Amino acid sequence: MPIFARSITLNPRHMLATSFPPLGLPPYAYKLSADGQRIFDTVRRRYVALTPEEWVRQHLVNFLVQHRGVPAGLMQVEAALRLNGLSHRADVVVFDRQAQPLLVAECKAPTVQLTNEVLQQACRYNIRFCARYILISNGLRHLCLRIDRSTGAAEPVAVPMFDEM
To answer: Alpha-carbon distance 19 to 165, whole Å?
Structure first.
């Protein structure tokens, strides 16, 4: 059974939003700015530039909150981190109630293939976070891995419910 079974319903009022392809993520009632150039981020509580990657990120955030029970207050979007002296940002990090990372997600635009390079990027970010789950998505394809912290082995799994992470 697919992890994400339905595609979204696009809002025809805004040309920019309708220029993005339907995603393999559940639909939700997103909010766009009056000019259709920005989408409301419920985690950061502000409008952000509506790019193809942001389109995927916001749908993934909504999926985690509405369909996997992740409290929005335990999520960080564009979480800053430093690796080898360089600044990076993880697209989404989910934390437990003790502020320990549970899941690191990397989002790409729908036109970007989910390659080994994308997975390696998420794994590098997870060096800093040490989360049990890594999720990569381009909105059309998704891969979630459970990491065995003792061995480093990774196993493909369905995106778990928050209380199972």
So the answer is: 35
The CA distance from 60 to 45, in Å, is: 16
Q: Tens place of pLDDT for every residue, the chain, 165 residues?
A: 344 433 334 444 443 555 777 899 998 999 999 988 999 999 999 999 999 999 999 999 999 999 999 999 999 999 999 988 889 999 999 999 999 999 999 999 999 999 999 999 999 999 999 999 999 999 999 999 999 988 989 999 999 999 999
Rg (CA), the chain: 15
Range of the structural domain that residue 75 is part of: 15-164
10 within some domain: no
How many domains does the chain contain in total? Answer: 1
Residue 32, in any domain of the structure: yes
Which of 53, 54, 66 has its CA nearest to residue 4? 66
Establish if 2 belongs to a structural domain: no
Name the DSSP letter for residue 21.
P
Whole-angstrom distance, CA of residue 40 vs CA of residue 42? 6
Q: Can you give the pTM of this predicted structure?
A: 0.87
Q: Are strands 133-137 and 101-107 parallel, antiparallel or unpaired?
A: parallel
